[in-house]
Amino acid sequence: MEQGQFYFVSDRFYELYDNDDNLMRNKETIDGSEHSRPCFFAFRDSKSSKVFWCVPISSKISKYAAIYNRKLDIQREKGIANPRCNTICFGDVMGMPRTFLIQNMFPIIEKYILSVYIDRNTRIPVTIEPEIERLVINNAKDILRLVNRGHKNLVFSDIIATYNDLITELGMV
């Protein structure tokens, strides 16, 4: 796995690590044709080089822009002068606007990666502009710090338990 690329996750990962159905699951057959969705932007964990963090992307810009703006409005109503939402980011992927759903991120190891997302035209792995990559990674790391301090409601799944289970699976405890 390489940081900054996009990947598809195997069903086996969900079977083992998503008993509560809190993660964005594979949608392999849509209207009778196969699709590999969702795809996940991946970046390396700062503690273990064998663990990556997956951030799903979505094409539903309007839906997530409304959620993003609602989060900012709630902060403004509370008197916060400079509201911030670092659970949702926006940026282009292959020239198309996409939403990066940091609130849905989770850790993974390579054995649960099904495939890399390859651009059909260039036949190379899909990546994003460096400034978008930095934005997503920095926001995700901010959320990880907060979750590790007890703010578990910032993400949908128990990423700490999943991380610890993956570390155990790797034999690193």
Compact summary:
With 173 residues, the chain is α+β, with helices and mostly antiparallel strands.
List the helices and strands and how they pair.
Layout (H helix, E strand, L loop, with lengths): L5 E4 L1 H7 L11 E2 L2 E2 L5 E5 L6 E8 L2 H17 L10 E6 L2 E6 L4 E4 L3 E4 L13 H19 L10 H11 L4
Antiparallel strand pairs: 1-4, 1-9, 2-3, 4-5, 5-7, 5-8, 6-7
Describe the structure in your own words.
The longest helix has 19 residues, at 130-148. By secondary structure, this protein is an alpha+beta fold. A hairpin with a 2-residue loop joins strand 2 and strand 3. The chain is globular and about 45 Å long. It has a single domain, classed as Thiol Ester Dehydrase, Chain A, CATH 3.10.129.130. It is 31% helix and 24% strand.
| Helix-residue proportion | 25-40%
Estimated share of beta-strand residues? 15-25%
What is the CATH fold-level name? Thiol Ester Dehydrase, Chain A
Kindly state the mean pLDDT as a whole number? 89
Categorize the overall geometry: globular
**Count of the separate structural domains:** 1
Find the structural class using helix and strand composition.
alpha+beta
Report the strand count. Answer: 9
**Main sheet summary:** 7 strands, antiparallel
Poorly predicted spans = 29-35
The ordered string of helix (H) and strand (E) elements is: EHEEEEHEEEEHH
Rounded to the nearest angstrom, the radius of gyration is 16 Å
Number of helices: 4
CATH secondary-structure class: Alpha Beta
Distance between the termini: 22 Å
CATH architecture: Roll
